[in-house]
Amino acid sequence: MNMTRKTPSLRSAQGEADVAQPDSAPTGHPRNSVQAYDAAAFEHLRINLSAAEKRVATLKGRRSVKKDAQAAWLLKAITCIDLTTLSGDDTPQRVRRLCAKAANPLRADLLEALGMQDRGLTTGAVCVYHRFVKTAVDALEGKGIPVAAVSTGFPAGLNPHALKLKEIEASVRDGAAEIDIVITREHVLTGNWEALYREMRDFRQACGEAHVKAILATGELKTLRNVAKASMVCMMAGADFIKTSTGKESVNATPLVSLVMLRMIRQYQEMTGIKVGYKPAGGVATAKDVLEYQVLMKEELGHDWLQPDLFRVGASSLLADIERQLEHHVTGRYSAFNRHAIG
């Protein structure tokens, strides 16, 4: 095999200076906090659909990341994956396999060829239902990989509010360091923004030290304006991340919805000085997909949002395709998809 040992540098599609090495430490920043409810911060929001669509259309037409640069971007992407299993037939054995893959996301020969064998490369987190939090925490002990639990009646979010809070508290007790909550879509669809704010504020308080990702289920919010307002309200109420989808809706993460949410993150930072993270989830299945999101993150928000403390990707099959692309980079050959185990 023709194995290259050159460590690729992470460069933008236009070949500008290095952005970060794949093992860079996350950028430190203050955690978001609950802000006072202020309707004036979002009630005026409007979305120029044609301009947004035009902006998104430029991503594929003028951006191209190739060779060593692409390998470096994909290595960085691995560190931002929330490796996920959220199936009705999940078992402890499946979760333990997933955790093993999260701790060793690339084969040893590929790590060596890419000069990454001593970098401690792992995924950003493992994401499971509450039922399997303890299993994942035990499997990842000493690995430095957080466990994220989906919560609050995931995916529909229609459980009684008190039960949602108890579910969050139970996952935190079991060791979850991150909680992915789902909002009540009804609050958005009826324009009851204060109810959404109170709900999100309660979720944040129930999480305590665990970071909270607010899943908006954007495919069910009807309009981009609703997506923008829901993003702002959830950040105002203390969300550490805003996330597109549960992965169970008919429409999940899209670049267009992502653009709107990223612009709201930028606006919130301008208002408060606080950086909030972003997580696309559902439908990000290929290396090409994640590269598009990485380029959008860097162009809209900057270098800090290429790090796992501000960028996560909820995915189950993405890692296998990234590993396949990196094997092609090293050997010049593609292998069958089923040779790259998810977990």
Q: Can I get a quick summary?
A:
The protein has a single domain (39-339), classed as TIM Barrel (Alpha-Beta Barrel). 42% of the residues lie in helices and 9% in strands. It has helices at 49-62, 67-78, 92-103, 108-113, 133-139, 161-173, 185-189, 193-207, 224-236, 255-272, 287-301, 318-331; strands spanning 81-84, 125-129, 147-150, 178-182, 211-215, 241-243, 277-279, 313-315.
Describe, in plain words, how this protein is organized in 3D:
- It catalyses: 2-deoxy-D-ribose 5-phosphate = D-glyceraldehyde 3-phosphate + acetaldehyde.
- It holds the Pfam family DeoC.
- By secondary structure, this protein is α/β, with parallel strands linked by helices.
- It has one domain (39-339): TIM Barrel.
- It is 42% helix and 9% strand.
- It has helices at residues 49-62, 67-78, 92-103, 108-113, 133-139, 161-173, 185-189, 193-207, 224-236, 255-272, 287-301, 318-331; strands at 81-84, 125-129, 147-150, 178-182, 211-215, 241-243, 277-279, 313-315.
- An eight-stranded parallel beta sheet has the order 7-6-5-4-3-2-1-8.
- Strand 6 (241-243), helix 10 (255-272) and strand 7 (277-279) form a beta-alpha-beta unit.
- Helix 6 runs parallel beside helix 8, helix 8 crosses helix 9 and helix 9 (224-236) runs parallel beside helix 10 (255-272).
- The radius of gyration is 19 Å and the shape is globular.
- Residues 1-26 have low confidence and may be disordered.
